[in-house]
Fold these 2 entries.
Entry 1:
Amino acid sequence: MKIAIDDGHGMETAGKRTPAFSDGSVMRENEFNRAVVAYLHDELIRNGFSVVLTAPEDTDTSLATRVQRANDAHADYFVSVHANAFGNGWNDANGVESFVYALNDAKTTGMARCIQHELIQATGLRDRGVKENPTLYVLRKTTMPAVLCECGFMTNAAEAKLLKSDAYRKKCATSICKGICAFAGKVYQEEKSPVVHGPVIIENRTEDVDLILWEGRNYLSARDVGEMFGYDVSFKGSTPIFTKKK
């Protein structure tokens, strides 16, 4: 199954940003969108989907180009990631919602509801539901079922803080992938930790340590090795310092 994923707008799209924070900074919407799509790409690949990126460039990409890329790739589904806004200043509008072209399209609405459910379960934000909006270009012009996710309000101070958070961005990506998996009847595959606990033998002595598996090789932590040989271990930056215990 091939999924086209779309990070809404671009870094320079006019007006698509938060109001100014107390330090004078702003978050552009595409900062959130592109981060979620990057995490979503890896989530989908791990779960056995093929992926098409509709806007991989750093520059703004037109809606027509995004749609054409999804259509030309014959994607099975299209998901566009956004952050919402109400007006230009801080206000109380809040929550998560998903949009489809038409609610009477059972397949599209089914996927949207799966994604919306997972987003609400993970974020705990207000559930604004699945809605139809036939005016949205990427929903109107794509030739496959398409869902546009609004993952929180940039104009709500509390939600804007979440949208800036890497942890929240990862949470949204995981939720969207879980929703797609649920809709497709696939069991979601969790990311496997590279750390495993296992034995090593040093000078005929067996010790249980944390092993890091990376590209087919096992690595030991410097601290574990040093302590096994009777050293105190400290660090200067990332450099381990071994001092013989007295």
Entry 2:
Amino acid sequence: MGEPRGRDVAARVVALWTLAIGFGASVLVGLSPTSWLQARLRYACEFEAEEWVCDGNAALLAAGASSLVLSTLALGSIALIVRATWDRVRLRAERFGWIALIAVLPTLILCGLLLLDAATHEPAGVELDDSRLAMWIESAMIPALATAVAGVLAGSGLRMRARGRPRRVAFVTILPAFALLLVAAVISFLGTLPTGIVAASAIGAGWYLAAAAWPGAAKQTVGDVDPDRSRSTS
């Protein structure tokens, strides 16, 4: 009993530290979206005399505030889910899918707000090259789609691992999810890097916790069995 208990406690500590490190890293790179917002999406810019006039301070503030607020809300929610599931991981496997979906919400919300801003502040009579909507499609749509797919893949992988599927099976979905988060950050010129770090840390925390509940050599204990397997054998 002592070894499984110690393993569970260690997994909880690692999961919480992973969330904390992810938050800290996100704060450190919180201003990285500034160039993306201004140069690629023309956030806080006005089209005057056939050229863009931009407010650098507004873009800087938006980058820092969006990263901090969205990351805090997402990681706070995920920490509550982690705390609510770590005692009975096997019986609450479905909740692990929510960890991944909430993890990618900051990026999706940010891209959605930028789309709304572009639509409501679209200059009249501009060419396609100067259209803010066209800029959003070019620079933000693909990162948003990649992040959404990453959330779906990671959610599937976390649920599978929490249900006791082999590590290699679940990891098939986790690795592509991490790769998609990286692709989104690269395509957005690091615009989604802070929120992508948050997503990666949340997925990692969920993985540590789910994996600890199903060690390779451990036997299932009475009262803590996988509901799906118990139903299938009954």
